[in-house]
Design goal:
- With 212 residues, the chain is of the alpha+beta class.
- It has one domain: Nucleoside Triphosphate Pyrophosphohydrolase (Alpha-Beta Complex), CATH 3.90.79.
- The chain has helices at 3-11, 97-109, 161-165, 196-210; strands at residues 17-19, 50-60, 65-72, 83-84, 87-89, 116-121, 124-126, 131-141, 153-160, 171-177, 180-187, 194-195.
- The strands form two sheets. Strands 1, 2, 3, 4, 5, 6, 7, 8 and 9 form a nine-stranded mixed β-sheet that branches.
- Residues 21-41 have low confidence and may be disordered.
C-alpha cells in the first residue's frame, strides 16, 4: 500500500469509539457500527476513564511501509512485557492528544517530533484497565534515532504494514479473566505476541486502510 493511499483512507475515515478492541469486540451500544461483540455483555470499567494517547508510527521505507512497535519492560505495573505503541497518559500540560502522543514517543523511544508527520487518527479505544486511548497515526521518515527509556521500553521493532493488513493475521483468541471469558485479537508476528489493545488498534488500522 502506498503512502498516498494511506493518507487518503485516513482522511475519509469516520472516527468512532469502541470498547475493549474493535467493532467486533466491545460494549458498543446497539446501533453503533459493529455492535456484534466478541464478548457479549462486556461493560466499560466502572471507574472514571484515564485519557491517554498513543502514536501509531508508520515508517516510510523506500520499498515498503512498516509499523513501529515497542516491547514494554517486565516490571511495569500496567501491561508489563506487552507489545505496545509508544504512548501514555495525557498530561495537563498537553494541549491535545497529538501533542501527548508525540511527547510520549520522544520520551519512550527517542523519536523526535520533527521526524513525524501526523496524518490522522483511529477510533478511540477503551481498555478494560480503564484507559480511553486516542491513537494518532503519523508517517515517520528514515533514518530516525532510537533512544529507549530503560524504565519503560525493553525493545523496539518494526512490522510490515502488509502483515497488519492481511485479515489472515487477525486471529481471535480468548482467556478467562476474573471468572469471565474475554475474547481478543492476536497478530501472530514471528517472535512477538501482539494482542489486546495494540492488536485491536492494528485491526482498526487495517479496517480503515482496506476501506471496510
Amino acid at each position: 500500500m502506498t503512502e498516498n493511499l494511506v493518507r487518503e483512507r485516513l482522511r475519509h475515515s469516520a472516527i468512532g469509539r469502541r470498547g475493549f478492541g474493535t467493532p467486533k469486540d466491545g460494549w458498543l451500544p446497539p446501533g453503533v457500527r459493529g455492535d456484534h461483540s466478541l464478548t457479549p455483555g462486556s461493560q466499560p470499567p466502572a471507574r472514571p476513564l484515564t485519557a491517554a494517547a498513543v502514536l501509531v508510527p508508520l515508517v516510510r521505507h523506500e520499498e515498503e511501509l512498516t509499523v513501529l512497535l515497542t516491547q514494554r519492560t517486565a516490571h511495569l505495573s500496567d501491561h508489563a512485557g506487552q507489545v505496545a505503541f509508544p504512548g501514555g497518559r495525557i498530561e495537563p500540560s498537553d494541549p491535545d492528544p497529538v501533542h501527548a502522543a508525540l511527547r510520549e514517543a520522544e520520551e519512550e523511544v527517542g523519536l523526535p517530533g520533527d521526524h513525524v508527520s501526523v496524518i490522522g487518527r483511529l477510533d478511540t479505544y477503551i481498555t478494560g484497565t480503564g484507559y480511553e486511548i486516542t491513537p494518532v497515526v503519523g508517517m515517520v521518515r528514515v533514518p530516525y534515532p532510537v533512544r529507549l527509556d530503560p524504565d519503560e521500553v525493553a525493545d523496539v521493532f518494526e512490522v510490515p504494514l502488509a502483515f497488519v493488513l492481511d485479515p489472515a493475521n487477525h486471529e481471535r483468541h480468548s482467556r478467562e479473566v476474573k471468572g469471565r471469558v474475554r475474547a481478543f485479537f492476536v497478530l501472530p508476528y514471528p517472535g512477538r505476541y501482539i494482542w489486546g489493545a495494540t492488536a485491536g488498534m492494528l485491526v482498526n488500522l487495517a479496517e480503515v486502510l482496506s476501506g471496510r
